[in-house]
Structure formats: structure tokens, C-alpha cells
Amino acid sequence: GDSGRHCLKTQATPKKKEKKKTNSKSLEKMTCHKIFIVVSLILAVSLVNAVEFSVVDNTGDSAGGRRFRDEIGGISYATESLRAATDFTWSVFQQTNNPSDRRNPPMISMVMENGDYVAYSSEDKIRFNAGYLAGVSGDVRKEFTGIVYHEVVHSLQWDGAGQAPRMLVEGIADYVKLKAGYVSSDFVAPGGGDKWDQGYAVTARFLEYCSDFRSGFVAELNKKMRGGYTDGFFVELLGKDVNQLWREYKANYGQ
Q: Where is this region: Disordered (predicted)?
């Protein structure tokens, strides 16, 4: 940056004949050089861990596209949501100050389009169907944001090197959305569902219950899932088999 160039110019200044001025200049050069090194290190760290965000609107004049731009805030709000979701997910995974634990995609992108689905993520690219937004009643911005949070988690979470149950992966994504406060009124209530790995809201509520017994449980589970997966992770973290935990969870809510 400009500060770096200024430092280089200061260092290149010829020495003065007067001894006092020379000492003063030397001190200035040393201080400037140290500042330059510190700033350079900070920039290097931030660049290594930086995630870029990109949003493209291909919805044209569709009803969902108009809603995306007029009621949600268009590309600007969508980009802001990607960034906020990334920061929040890192906080839930306890990775804000532990970047070496992260799955660090260089970019998370989103394409708004007219399709026949809600949204999905593949290789850190989110495809979002604006047509879904056209039919949302109530707070469409909150609904949109919740879906963005869920999909962003998929770019940041570990999946047991492909070995974790898919519905557990989806449940963790919905858990982050739940903790962020972006769930809709039809989100499964605590105690709902038929099995712990049913996925999405059901598994999210179960993970919330498990977190009552160990603070940061989901963060620790995600960290363990970096290199592989086994149901034994629940025993290691909570001292109980996952199926026993599920039975106790259901009983806790009288089901």
C-alpha cells in the first residue's frame, strides 16, 4: 500500500551530515520499517484466510427476480448475507480465531436464477431459485437469509471426508441457521422427528439438545469430522451412544 512505498522512500533518503539529524532519521526509518513488516504480516494472514463472495442475478423480469431486488435488496444484500453467514458459521464452529481449523474455500458464489427447486450448493457455488421467493408469504427477506446461511455452511463445514451421513451434514447446516435466528415458523419443534439422522430441522433440534450437555458440541463434532466420521464421536464427546441420546431426547419431550 501507500504506507509501504512511503517507508521505502524514507529508507532511501541520504544521511545528513549533522549527527543529531542522522539519529532522528535512523529512528524514523527503523520505526517505519517495523510498521511496514507488521502491516505486511497482517495482510498476509488476512489474504490466506480471505473468502471472496460473488452474486449474479440471472432472474430477468420474473416475479421472483423482482422480489429479490425490490424486497430483499438484490445483489448488495445477497453479498452482505454471504459474508455475514460466513462470519457467523466460523463463530459457531469456534474458528474465528482458529483459521487453521477451517475449510477455507477461496470463493463462495451465488447465482440467482429461475428454476424448479429451492436452493442447493455444489463446489462452493450456490444456485438459488428466485421462483421459490415468489411464493413466500410473510418475511421473504428472513426466509431468503435463512436459506443462504444453510447453503453457506456447506462450503465451510467438514463432512467426514465424504463419510458422514448426509442428513447429519444437512442437520449441522440447519443448526447454524437455527442459532442465527433465521428459521421460519414451520421449523420443527424440539423433540420432533423419527430418527436422529433424519436431517435438516429434526437433526438440528437434536444437536441443540446435545449442546446442552457440552458447550461447543457442534464445533467439536465438526472439527472431528475433518478427516473421517464415526458415530463414536458422540460417545467421545458426550459419553453416550447416539441412539441412546436420541431415545433420551424423545423421552425428554414426552415422545
A: 1-25
